Fold this sequence. Notes:
Blueprint: E1 7-12, E2 21-22, E3 26-27, E4 33-35, H1 43-51, E5 56-61, H2 77-86, H3 98-113, H4 120-137, E6 143-144, H5 145-148, H6 158-172, H7 177-189, H8 199-202, H9 210-216, H10 219-228, H11 235-243, H12 264-278, H13 290-298, H14 306-315, E7 316-317, E8 324-326, E9 332-337, E10 347-350, E11 356-358
Parallel strand pairs: 6-7
Antiparallel strand pairs: 1-5, 2-5, 3-4, 8-9, 9-10, 10-11
Helix pairs in contact: 3-4, 4-6, 4-7, 6-7, 6-12, 6-14, 7-11, 10-11, 11-12, 12-13
Amino acid sequence: MVTTLIKRYFVRNSSLKTGMRIDQAIKDRMDRTLIARGTILDEYLIESLKKLGIAGVYVSEGEEDPEPEKPEPPIPPQIQKTINQMRKEDPSKVNLSESVKKRVSEGIQYLYNNPESQEFTNTASSITQNLMKAINENDAIAVDITALKTCDEYTFKHSVDVATMSMIIAKQKNLKQEDIYNIGVSGLLHDMGKSKIPLSILNKPAKLNDDEFAIMKKHPLLGYEILKEKQDIPQTVSFAVLQHHEKINGRGYPMGVTGDKITPFAKIMSVVDVYDALVTERPYKKAFSQRTAVEMIMSMTEELDLDSMRSFLASVILYPVDTIVSLSNGEDAKVVKNNSHSILRPTVVGLTTGKVYNLADDFACASIIIL
């Protein structure tokens, strides 16, 4: 196989030419992708970069031959029989069709670009209804978090991730349909205050300093001030937006209130918001793996509401059934059953030995982990 070396270099905007391939994503102040990585630049895009005040971008040349997909090794009949006997379908997962993703994506962009619009509430309602329909159509009570973040970055914005996962958790907690709907609206609008934060801070390609972070920490209050003026936005939504960065131990912001002062919606959204931030890549940090993010969430017992954390862990599927995983004992295995009380440790069947590893409940498997 012949592989071409890909060259990556920085080009100032005055030297950009049509036909160059941009090797970074250009995002707006709400972290929405304006130009995707890998896009071929034309005159319009080059002019847009200049208008955005971007001094230059990374471009790349060359192509790398894709690695051929390795076929899944055949499973011996006896082991396949064990897999079939042990296999238990995952709970129904939320699934958004491409048409719904498109409508949601367009709606989100409209909301954050037009906070004063008379159609603001109707648009938020329409998006939430689309999400509600997707959840209710297949009675979804779970979300495949490995799929959620690998979807098209144009479509799955942070706000949609937070809204979708919050709604699933609300359903897991057996909340009323009205509450599930309202927490969906809260999730969609939770970062609305960032529309009032200076672009120089929102688009800074490095970690914020203390003064900049102090300004950024105002966005929940700014979002609340936008929403409280809208008579058709419920107070539960406005307060959830205000408090989504508060922590149980009082070390959150903007007010530093403790657990008993934080609304139920905000407690749920706080868990989801932290998770989604951990698995999202930023210019100044790499994304954590889904597994690592879940482990970090589980360690935050002093900051996050335990009941909401448990509902989050019961709602997410880290290793979907039929996933092939590598075990620390050297054997590859197929996931046959997830354990809602221990999402990091599903039941798997070894593809070499046919042994059933109940990683959650079998003491003999205590030393074995999924790599």
